[in-house]
Amino acid sequence: MPDHERRAGSTLATLSPAYFAFVMATGIVSIAAELRGLHRLAVLLLWVNVIAYGALWALSLARLARYRDRMLADLTSHQKGAAFLTTVAGTNVLGSQLALVAERPGIAVALWWLGLALWGVLLYAFLTAVTFREPKPDLATGISGVWLLLVVSTESVAVLGATVAPSIAPRGVLFVSLVAHLVGAMLYLLVIGLIFYRWTFFSMGGDQATPPYWINMGALAITTLAGSNLILAAPRWDLLRQLEPFLQGTTILFWAFATWWVPLLVIMGVWRHGVKRVPLRYDPQFWALVFPLVMYSVATTKMIEAIGLPFGSWIPAAFFWIGLGAWAITAVGMAVAERPGSR
Fold first, then answer.
1. Taking residues 186-214, what's their average pLDDT?
2. How far is 56 from 74, CA to CA, in rounded Å?
3. How far apart are CA 122 and CA 150, in angstroms?
4. CA distances (Å), 158 to each of 52, 107, 180, 184, 266, in order?
5. pLDDT for residue 12 is more than 90
6. Distance CA 199, CA 210 (A)
7. Packed helices 238-270 and 287-307: angle between N→C axes, nearest 10 degrees
8. What distance in Å separates the CA atoms of residue 219 and residue 291, rounded to the nearest whole number?
9. 17: closest CA among 66, 72, 85?
10. Euclidean distance between CA atoms 52 and 32, whole angstroms
11. Confidence band, pLDDT 50/70/90 cuts, at residue 4
12. Is residue 191 a contact partner of residue 148, using CB atoms and an 8 Å limit?
């Protein structure tokens, strides 16, 4: 077998579902750009995302056909399984792009149904596997920030659902979105307790302080966005109008805790690369850092709109530009790392 075919087969066999985090990151940068009036940039990133989404699905289906056992082993792994939920979040973020940037609610609705189906299959497949499989890893090696994709994928259903509800059955879709929002919030409480316990009572090496821990903040940011979207949708349904004070309080709570995480995560990054000297080079996991940064910008923008806060507009602006810079640097790193002959 020629070398290039052998390399292609090896890449396909080990393809990480975390690459769908590129779709998540690119999509949320596009949405943030649209909210800031940068429509051309938003449209450009939308086209990038459409192509990337199609290519990643083609590669994933090819991997399933050729390396099914290996793919199923990854899905049922404590360390890798939760990463498959990036397909759910990526699908719903792309749907939000199409609804907000391209004004294509019909396609967005189809992606919401696909995202909902993927969520049901992948989330329960992963949780079933890690519950009943033996032997199990210890907490220090078995859990990471990737587990918070349980929250991100669930809240992404709520975010897109509240966005497309007027295009289908408003009350039914809004109810599903409300349930998803509340379930996502409860999942955060379950997972973050384990992560915080792992942080504070187990040894943490530089190679373990990985970028996906930024999802500690990103999961709360998307929960804030889901709550804000539901508040904005309240005039369309009496139940949401009655729950509006509750949603306002919890949305501010989620945003406040997301904000609290930011300095600690920055300190962790400085410790990892400055103190522990872990080389700062491209890794697909860095998309899990870009997404939270820009999601925080979008969530803050929508929370200000939903609750009517008369201050704080500089916060989403700052995080947008920081996130856009992080996206550009990570994209260049990916292009260099994935170019022919780089491996």
1. 92
2. 17
3. 10
4. 23, 17, 5, 9, 29
5. no
6. 12
7. 140
8. 10
9. 85
10. 19
11. very low
12. yes
Average pLDDT over residues 154-166: 96
Q: Encode pLDDT of 221-272 as tens digits.
A: 999 999 999 999 999 999 999 999 999 999 999 999 999 999 999 999 999 9
pLDDT tens digits for 78-120? 999 999 999 999 999 999 999 999 999 999 999 999 999 999 9
- Cβ atoms of 99 and 166 within 8 Å: the answer is no
**Cα–Cα distance between 137 and 146 in angstroms, integer?**
16
Q: CA 141, CA 269: separation in Å to the nearest integer?
A: 19
The residue assigned the tokens 């190679």 is 207
Give residue 242's pLDDT: 96
